[in-house]
Specification:
This protein is of the alpha/beta class. The protein folds into two domains: 6-94 and 213-267, Rossmann fold, CATH 3.40.50.1860; 96-211, Rossmann fold (3-Layer(aba) Sandwich). The chain is built from twelve helices and ten strands. The strands form two sheets. It has a six-stranded parallel beta sheet with strand order 4-3-1-2-9-10, with helices on both faces. Helix 2 crosses helix 3 (74-87) and helix 4 packs across helix 6 (125-134). The chain is globular, with a radius of gyration of 18 Å.
Length: 271
């Protein structure tokens, strides 16, 4: 099991923020990343369709020998995590609960904002995760959730700081800014790539929380508990990238957002 890869997937490029955290924390672990850019975006799609996509990608990564599955897509994790967990014998980790736990540790006022895709916010997944965290707190968390349609599309186009992005952010982030939150959960793995613009709009005193690091810590704990960590000092860990979209566009943007380790990108076609 220890030499098998960690499987990570997202609707596109956003999950690379989670993969970056995983690779930095667990550099000896081989990984397989699947970016479903050919069927992106997931956010506006019906939950049944997103679940179907998640199961197809999960099957692919399990066939690739994945020892653990990371659903690095909030839209998929918010509607399909339970189904994925029941389908596979390997551990499956989402990004919703880790993000809420991290925000609960950071907030001083208990007022937390959550931004995500239309599908993620409508699913109620963050509210359910917050209710579980509340059980361990003296004061309940007060969540203000806002859907941010359009953010993901800008990131996938490689635009993270234009005037158009800023104007859109001013409009979409108004509810969380008006709620005077002190912590903001970036409830989509694409959103850390917009962190500078988001921080400018909500105010630099608001702490932005990404689930990437927290998810990576959870993966490490799971592997340690199952004695599934790959031994250090062996062969260089492989990093495989697969996309259902255009490989040249994926490689260019993945290199920009993830780093120079993105050398080979494999194409995948859904038949």
């Amino acid at each position: 099991m220890s030499d098998q890869p960690i499987g990570v997937f997202d609707s596109g490029l956003g999950g690379l923020t989670v993969l970056r955290a995983l690779v930095d924390l667990l550099p000896d672990e081989p990984v397989v990343y699947f970016g479903d850019t050919g069927r992106f975006p997931y956010g506006p799609k019906p939950r049944e369709e997103v679940t179907k996509y998640a199961l197809e990608i999960g099957d692919l990564l399990v066939d690739q020998g994945a020892k653990l599955l990371v659903v690095a897509c909030n839209s998929a994790a918010s509607v399909a995590l339970d189904t994925l967990e029941s389908r596979y014998s390997i551990p499956v980790i989402g990004v919703v609960a880790p993000g809420v736990r991290a925000a609960a540790r950071v907030t001083q006022s208990g007022r937390i904002g959550v931004i995500g895709t239309v599908g993620t916010i409508a699913s109620g997944a963050y509210q359910r995760a917050a209710n579980l965290v509340d059980l361990d707190r003296r004061e309940p968390l007060a969540l203000t959730c806002a859907a941010c349609p359009g953010f993901v599309e800008f990131v996938e186009a490689g635009d993270v700081d234009s005037d158009q992005v800023y104007v859109l952010a001013e409009r979409l982030l108004a509810p969380v800014r008006d709620a005077k939150v002190d912590t903001l959960v970036l409830g989509c793995t694409h959103y850390p790539l917009l962190a500078r613009t988001i921080a400018d709009v909500v105010g630099r005193d608001v702490v932005l929380v990404s689930s990437a690091d927290e998810t990576a810590f959870e993966v490490r704990a799971l592997l340690d508990g199952a004695s599934g960590r790959r031994s250090a000092g062996g062969a260089v860990a492989t990093r495989t990238f697969i996309t259902s979209g255009d490989i040249h566009t994926f490689r260019a943007l993945a290199t920009r957002f993830f780093g120079p380790e993105v050398e080979t990108v494999e194409a995948w076609s859904w038949s």
